[in-house]
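Incident log, structure service

09:12 report received: a user says their structure output differs between two submissions of the same chain.
09:20 pulled the input from the user's history:
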Amino acid sequence: MAETIEPVIGRLEKTVLDCPDPRALAAFYGEILGMRINEDTDGAWVVIGREPGMRELAFQKADPYVPPRWPDAGHPPQEHLD
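09:34 re-ran on a clean worker, output below:
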């Protein structure tokens, strides 16, 4: 009997970090990781990757930004998968 493979309902596109200044954080991580800015939407959403079209790490403006306090469940998530 052949195994049935379920269809994929989604795909992981990128990891997103909430922050107060997406351009600054994207520039920092881009330099460290050897990536380039592939998308910048008015500085509120910035995506870096190794090649054009590759969207590997994104930075999203959070306003107001609340710094993480681990392991306080009362604060919103600041990293999520899209």
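09:41 both user submissions now match this output. Likely a transient worker issue. Closing.
09:42 reviewer note: Residues 15-65 form a domain with the Signal recognition particle alu RNA binding heterodimer, srp9/1 fold (CATH 3.30.720.120). The CA atoms of residues 53 and 61 lie 21 Å apart.
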